[in-house]
Every structure is written in structure tokens, then in C-alpha cells.
């Protein structure tokens, strides 16, 4: 099936023939749906701390920071902004010259409120010899949008989200990337250092580095920190092969195999290379201006405090198990902790002898940990928190996407629709064991949680393989805890008009 050319291509990408054949097989067999026990809710898998507990956890985190640990803020930022402007591209390429849809009308009505308003006006003057106001009066709506999206203008249709101007300030507008630098200084710095890591696409790497070089000094002065800013790209070895609808390899016009990026699950490889005691993960577009940052900072510190408190207990129990100095009573205490605090249950645990029990408990304790903020469900598309069955028959907390749920199972669909909470991608992780050795994160991925999606290329249908998502199946075998955080900490920007919401003004 594979030609010499194919073998050369996969060797260049760092993909083994075995892995490629596995992927072809996955297309044929598909992925099993997950077996669900229940949607997680407050008191049932989602911890809702009291004000007193909040303060105590924040204090724990501040003490941890003061002790001088290495903390990294990890920001997936490879997304292009093209989806954000889907509606405006449709207007630019459509038959009508004036705004017709509600979206178009809202865009032009609020145009002065965008943080990129001044830059857009300058481009209009440069390219059309008129100010933005004059072009609006002349009804040159399409020309305005062209100045925003196209290369001769601001080129927003091709730029990454992280480099668009999102928020206005008296000293000039800020990009999401800058907002993440500010956040890092506010809750993720230690010993006067703030480590921030962005995962970016290859074509945008130069632009990100240039922007950092321009801005870093300003924020170092403003927040009294030294930044260590690093970048990485998705590895070519995480690309996945595409097939035709009949599962035969999809070939480009030149006969080569088509590979596609494997989705955000590929980033587990990037995360695996981060040397840190604690890693915060948050999407690039979920940022707010300074006037609204207080909640973000509070709750980031809260979930980090929960993480380091859990870690202290886990490490303590592992030391006891490894020393051999325990009795049955102590094992019972550890079982309660695994079941209650880590929400990990084994239905037949009572049948285990002490020696097997120790092996089981050690396996469940000695793995990476993540604490995830969860917000109340407001009907946003995306994943939610569930109690699900794992491959070893245990039940634990997972974040699921709708594609992982059997749509023919009425009970499961109902669980998904009636779920009380939503995943805003607000994670804090610990990826080292109690001896300070880093876990190899790919070992904790549930490979059976990828999914197959329908795409097309040059008008030809194809099937694509998405790797287990970063916060879904890629972290399936981690210790997971969900904590309720307020909706005010979740302000993603999915379309350009989202920037007109009060939270971004």
C-alpha cells in the first residue's frame, strides 16, 4: 500500500509505519463511545468552596509561590483568526454592498468601539485616501472590511488570534498575547520571574517573536517581573493521515498522502517538554481588560491552591505506601481520599487483598494532577464535566466533547443537554512525581478517545482523524478535580462582534 515516496514522507515527519497503519485501522474500526455514569454537578464531582475555603487556598498558593517554585503559563495560540471573521468574509464576498444581516449591522454600528479602530482608520486613509468616518458616510462598507481582512490592510483574516488588537487602554491597545503576559505577572510569577509558553503555528512564529520583542520591556517595568517567554510548534509527528470516505488513503493531486494537524490533542507533546512544578493552561482568546481581571486572578489562585494542597497529600500518601509502614486502617484512609477528594472510584475495591490494594492505590496516586475550573452552563458549545468509566473499570472525572457521546443513547444525550456546568479550559497542572521526576505525559493518554470528522479538500470529501483532545482523552489517566469558578472568568472571543461585549470594552 505504501510507496517509497510515502515512506520518505513519513520518515521526514517522524511518523513510524506502525503508527500510520494504526491510524488506517482506526478509520475502519472507529472509536468506541464513552460509558457515562453521570454529568458532574455541584457536590457530585464539582467542588464549590466556601469563601473561607477560598481564602485559605489562595493563601496556600501565595505561600507556594513565595517558596520559589517554577511556574509556567502555557497558552495554546496557534489558532488563526479566520473563523472569527467568517461573517465578515461572507459580507465581503457576498452580493450585497450594504450591511443586511444583524451581524453585519452590529459590526458597523459598533465599529468605533473596536480596539483596532484607529489602525483600521489609518489603513483606510493610506489605501483609499479617506478616513473610516468618510468611508462609512460614502457607503464604502466592503472597502472597509477589505482594509480589515486583506493583506494590503490589517491582514486580520490571516493573522493568529493572539496578535489582533482586542482591548483599548489609555496607553494604546493590547493583543491577547499581551493580556496573557499581564496575567502571568499577576498570579503565575515566582521569585520575580514569569515564565510564559505559547504554542504557535509555524507561519506565525516570526510575528509572535517580533511582538514580544516590542512589548516585553514595557510589561517588565509595569509589573516588576522578568519574563521568560518561549514558543513551540505542533510537531509534524503528531499530524494524522486523511482517508477517502471508503477508508482508502486520500492522495493529493501529486499522489502524496495527505496529512492534517491532529487537533489540540497534539499539544500533549509540547506540554510534555515543559519543565515546571505547576503549569497553568488557558486558551489565547479568553482574556479581559485590566478592569475585569480581579476575578480571574482570584480564581486562578484558588484552583492553584487546591492543586498544591492535593499534591501535598498525594505525595505524603505515596511516601507512606513506598515505605511499607502502613496498616489496614491507614489504607482505608487513603481509599477515602482517592474516592472522595480525587473522585476516583473502583466498584469492586472491597474484593482486593491489602497487597493488591497497595498496588492499585499507588497507581492511582502516582500520576499527573489537574484541577479544572468549571463554569455554569450558559449554552455555549463545547465540552462538559462527567463521571465516566475508564478502561480499567474505575470511574473518574473527565471533560467530554459531544462527539464522544453516543447520540443514539437517549439517557446520555439527556445527561449532556442537562449538564449544569461547562468546560472553559481553565486548568492548572502538576506534572512531576514526589521525587521531582517529570511524568512522561503521552503514557497517560487514552488513545481510544480520538474521533473521526468529515472534512473536504479541493471539493473532495475526506475523513480526518482528531487525536484525543488536550483536556479530554489526552489527560484521561490524570488525577482530575473540578472546581466551580464564576462565569466572569470565561470571556472567549469566537466572532469579531464578541469584542463589542461589555467584557471586552
Explain this structure to me?
- It is a single chain.
- The longest helix has 31 residues, at 293-323.
- The strands form four sheets. Strands 2, 3, 4, 5, 6, 7, 10, 11, 14, 15 and 18 form an eleven-stranded mixed beta sheet that branches. Strands 1-12-13 form a three-stranded antiparallel beta sheet, covered by helices on one side. The chain has a two-stranded antiparallel ribbon with strand order 8-9.
- The protein is globular.
- The protein has 505 residues and is α/β, with parallel strands linked by helices.
- Helix 6 (117-128) packs across helix 8 (141-149), helix 9 packs across helix 10 and helix 13 (328-340) runs parallel beside helix 14 (354-365).
- It folds into two domains: 4-78 and 178-504, Spore Coat Polysaccharide Biosynthesis Protein SpsA, Chain A, CATH 3.90.550; 90-159, no CATH class.
- It is 36% helix and 17% strand.
Brief digest:
The protein is an alpha/beta fold and 505 residues long.
